[in-house]
C-alpha cells in the first residue's frame, strides 16, 4: 500500500503476518521528495511502534515547533535535536523527545535518525534525517500531505490487524477423521 505522493510525502507499507500471533508485522518505508527513508526490503518488521509514532505526530502536529529553532536552518536544527536527544544530556527528552520521529522504531529504520518539526510560518513539515554514515539531509512538504498519509495509514493498519487470522497452513486431510 502507498499512502500519499512520493514526490512530496508518502508511506509505503505491506502487512506480512507469518503466524496467528504476528499480525502487525511487515515492511515499511517513507518516500519524500523522491528519497526513500527506511528499508522496504527488510521483511517481517514490527510495524506497531512506527505507526504509533506517525499517528502521534499527526495528532500533535501543533506542538512540533520550539522557539529555539527560530532563525535556524534544517542542518542546525538537526544538530540541536541530535545533541539534545542522542549525543548529550538525555534529560532533555521531556522537552524535545516529541521531535524524534522514527529513530529506533523498527528494523526497517535501523541506522537512520529522523526528526520532524513544523514551521509555523509556512505550514510545512520538515523531515530531518540521517541514513547510515551519510550527512544529515532534510525534506519539506505540506502539513496536509503528511496528515492525509498518516490518517490513511492509521485506518488501514487498524483494519489489517483486526482481520481474523488467515489459516497459514493447508488443511490436514485427516482432521475430520480424528473427530
Summarize the SSE layout with pairings.
Elements lengths: L1 E4 L3 E7 L9 E8 L2 E3 L7 E2 L1 H12 L14 H14 L5 H4 L15 E8 L4 E8 L5 E6 H20 L12 H4 L1
Antiparallel strand pairs: 1-2, 2-3, 3-4, 3-5, 6-7, 7-8
Structural notes for this entry:
The structure is a single chain. The chain has 179 residues and is an alpha+beta fold. It has one domain (2-168). 30% of the residues lie in helices and 26% in strands. It has five helices and eight strands, in the order βββββαααβββαα. Strands 1, 2, 3, 4 and 5 form a five-stranded antiparallel sheet that branches. A three-stranded antiparallel sheet has the order 6-7-8. The longest helix is centred in the C-terminal third of the chain and has 20 residues, at 143-162. The protein is globular, with a radius of gyration of 19 Å. 32% of the residues are buried.
What is the number of helices? 5
Helix percent band: 25-40%
Overall spatial form: globular
Average residue pLDDT: 90
Strand content: 25-35%
Keywords:
alpha+beta; 8 strands; single chain; 5-stranded antiparallel beta sheet; 179 residues; 3-stranded antiparallel beta sheet
Précis, in short:
With 179 residues, this protein is α+β, with helices and mostly antiparallel strands. The protein contains five helices and eight strands.
Amino acid at each position: 500500500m502507498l499512502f500519499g505522493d512520493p514526490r512530496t510525502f508518502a508511506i509505503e507499507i505491506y502487512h506480512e503476518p507469518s503466524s496467528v500471533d504476528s499480525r502487525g508485522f511487515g515492511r515499511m518505508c517513507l518516500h519524500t521528495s523522491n528519497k526513500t527513508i527506511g528499508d522496504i526490503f527488510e521483511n517481517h518488521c514490527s510495524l506497531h511502534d512506527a505507526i504509533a509514532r506517525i499517528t502521534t505526530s499527526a495528532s500533535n502536529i501543533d506542538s512540533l515547533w520550539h522557539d529555539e529553532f527560530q532563525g535556524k536552518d534544517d542542518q542546525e536544527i538537526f544538530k540541536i535535536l541530535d545533541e539534545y536527544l542522542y549525543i548529550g544530556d538525555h534529560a532533555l527528552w521531556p522537552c524535545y523527545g516529541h521531535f524524534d520521529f522514527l529513530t529506533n522504531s523498527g528494523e526497517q529504520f535501523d541506522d537512520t535518525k529522523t526528526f520532524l518539526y513544523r514551521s509555523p510560518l509556512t505550514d510545512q513539515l520538515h523531515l530531518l534525517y540521517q541514513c547510515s554514515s551519510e550527512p544529515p539531509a532534510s525534506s519539506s512538504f505540506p502539513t496536509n500531505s503528511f496528515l492525509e498519509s498518516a490518517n490513511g495509514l492509521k485506518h488501514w493498519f487498524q483494519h489489517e490487524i483486526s482481520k481474523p487470522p488467515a489459516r497459514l497452513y493447508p488443511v490436514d486431510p485427516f482432521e475430520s477423521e480424528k473427530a
